[in-house]
Specification:
SH3 type barrels, mainly beta, about 200 residues, Elongation Factor Tu (Ef-tu), domain 3, six-stranded antiparallel beta barrel, elongated
């Protein structure tokens, strides 16, 4: 078993995947990527791994806390990502990483083209329509085939028991409805009405 060195998780760390299992007998791991286009994961020379929760590895973990590991090779294979981690040289060592969460610093992500955004950058942005009416905040994005949909959460009047309530709007993330994304102002402007 490799001797993993503890490391601090970067302040701008974003979880990009999880070690799903060993792949082959030479220490490769199979990764469940959180994105259908895992370019940042494929390009990174080092990953930050956080120990898996007990439900993934009850009573066992190859390490505690967070470690930084060097990546020898990473590629797409079939419908998943596989990687060879430096120092992990057999199936047993690879299996010991099952369930570990993989994070990368946001600064390691490739630059986006104009009008392209990483989902993580859209989370929490305030959404307003053209008239300046607040429609809520982006809480999630959902891939629906060729387009993505913004899941916008907004407050509702309290229930009879006084509990705060919220609801969701689904707004297609396409130019027909999205006028502007201003990451610096943390704001998205859309052609959408509150009663849609």
């Amino acid at each position: 078993m490799p001797d993993f060195q503890s490391s601090a998780l970067p302040d701008d760390a974003i979880e990009v995947g999880r070690v799903q299992d060993a792949w082959g007998v030479k220490g490769w791991v199979k990764v469940l990527a959180h994105s259908p286009e895992p370019q940042a994961l494929l390009d990174a020379k080092a990953w930050f791994l956080q120990a898996p929760e007990a439900r993934f590895r009850p009573g066992f973990s190859a390490f505690k806390g967070t470690v930084s590991l060097q990546i020898e090779e990473c590629k797409v294979h079939s419908d998943s990502v596989v990687a060879k981690i430096q120092g992990v040289n057999d199936r047993t060592a690879a299996e010991a990483l099952k369930g570990a969460r993989i994070s990368l610093p946001r600064s390691a992500f490739p630059k986006t083209a104009q009008d392209e955004y990483y989902w993580v950058d859209l989370m929490g942005l305030d959404v307003f329509n053209r008239e300046g009416v607040s429609l809520g905040q982006v809480r999630d994005l959902v891939a629906t085939g060729p387009t993505s949909v913004l899941v916008v959460e907004y407050p509702m009047p309290p229930g009879e028991d006084g509990q705060a309530l919220s609801a969701e709007r689904m707004i297609p993330f396409v130019s027909a409805y999205v006028d502007a994304v201003d990451l610096a102002a943390k704001r998205i402007t859309v052609d959408w009405q509150p009663d849609y």
